[in-house]
Amino acid sequence: MLLGCYNDVLFVLSCRVNMSSINFPNIDHENLPKWEGDLAPLECIEVIEETHNVKSFRFKSKKDAWFQFLPGQHTTLFLNINGTDVMRTYTIASSPTRPHTITITSKRMDGGIVTNWMHDNLKVGDCIDALNIGGSFSVALDKPRRKVLLMSGGSGITPMLSMTRYFVDLAIDVDIVFVYNAQTPEDLIGKYELDYYAHHQTNFDLHYVCDKADSSWQGESGFLDSKMLTRLVPDFLEREVYCCGPEAYMVNAQDLLDKGGFDMSCYHQESFDIESSTAQQNMAEPHEEPLDVPEFSGEVVEYIVTLSETGKTIPCQSNTTILDSIQKQGIGVPFACSMGMCGTCRAKMTKGTVDMDAQGGLLKSHEEEGYILTCCSHPTSDVVLDL
Ligand code: FES
To answer: Counting Cβ atoms within 10 Å, is residue 191 exposed (0-12), middle (13-18) or buried (19+)?
Structure first.
């Protein structure tokens, strides 16, 4: 840059020499590779303080690539924290219509190993590994009615943010009502952005419901009951419902809708809260009730699962998951999502064969080394596990 003076006017001459230029990413979609997970590094490019205990982390692929996913889907991060490998699944809050980055929005919580580590340590320029993107909770996977009701409680807002951004970016002809529950007004995530949509989109009706709020709060407060639901969404019976939040929130939502005469085949929910469940029960005690078992067709055969470290042998039927059978014997083993997504229940199988329905929670390389996810594996022979 040159500075000079002419007729008392200061002038600045810019010159290209010695000036750095913008380094644009490769956005030639013809040639730009699609991001593939399986430990593909993500670079953190932005950290946003959303609320007093929520941060958003924006990532780009370390190598030029674009992300293909559906609004509401999730990815699993793979980190080494204090020498221990940990995997955690997070819904992507950003929209696939902005495919060069993905955003994970997470809430700090007591005992939350991965989220708290991210809050305390992850900064712009850092890289972390991630597995593939997956999941079946997405409006884009269904053929929903033209009227949609989004319901979220607390940090269950993340898939709803992705869906909302997707609807807006693509100008989709849809009538959206969004009921967003939070503890207090200070806990509302993405409020400025949602308010913007509410003011500028004719098809977006937004209702905040806070458990506790002082007299300055202009939105709803209190418990979401059938009276409030009917008042806020009088035509809820005509809508496709997407719901995400803590278990108790979703149970209440289902109950309200069901009792109100809603066709529950139009109800969809995201039913996991991995970070909190692993924080509380990383070596969880057995379930009293069996976990949901997928429909099983064919002859039920009983096999033996041997845990090589203790020599214990466990009967396991071919229509039952190995995790469930182990738990029925009163043996505590690590698990979190019970859906093949988080990788917490990973165990090495040294003998035998299984049918496994991993939903992105297992690296290809680990599978090749003989690891299985016990929560979604059904034996097809006797099995020996390194447990
Ligand atoms: S418990 Fe999450 S993959 Fe098995």
So the answer is: middle
Distance CA 303, CA 316 (A): 5
* Phi and psi angles of residue 43, each rounded to the nearest 5 degrees, phi first: -105, 130
Domain that holds residue 89: 40-134
- What pTM, to 2 d.p., does this model score? 0.77
How many Å is the maximal CA-CA distance in the chain? Answer: 96
Q: Is the CB of 87 under 6 A from ligand 1?
A: no
Cβ count within 10 A of residue 320: 20
Using a 6 Å cutoff on CB, does residue 343 contact ligand 1?
Answer: yes
228 and 108 belong to one structural domain: no
Would residue 57 count as lying in a domain? yes
Per-residue model confidence as pLDDT tens digits over 241-267: 999 998 899 999 999 999 999 999 999
The domain boundary, picked from 112, 134, 156, lies at 134
Q: Which atom of ligand 1 is nearest to the CA of 338?
A: 1
Predicted confidence band of residue 208 (pLDDT cuts 50, 70, 90) = very high
Alpha-carbon gap, residue 182 to 210, rounded angstroms: 5
Q: Does the C-beta of 340 come closer than 6 Å to ligand 1? A: yes
Q: Quick check: is 26 in a domain? A: no
What span, in angstroms and rounded, lies between the C-alpha atoms of 79 and 152? 28
Both 223 and 286 in a single domain? no
- Whether 156 lines ligand 1, by a CB cut-off of 6 Å, is no
Q: Give the tens place of pLDDT for each residue, 122-139.
A: 999 999 998 878 877 899
For the domain that residue 96 is a member of, what is the CATH number?
2.40.30.10
In a domain, 313, yes or no: yes
Give the list of residues 6+ apart from residue 186 with CB closer than 8 angstroms, or none. 51, 52
Region 153-180: what's the mean pLDDT? 96
**Count of the separate structural domains present in the chain:** 3
Q: Are residues 158 and 88 in the same domain?
A: no
Condensed to tens digits (0 to 9), the pLDDT of residues 61-75 reads 998 899 999 999 988
pLDDT in tens, 283-321: 333 343 434 444 556 789 999 999 999 999 999 999 999
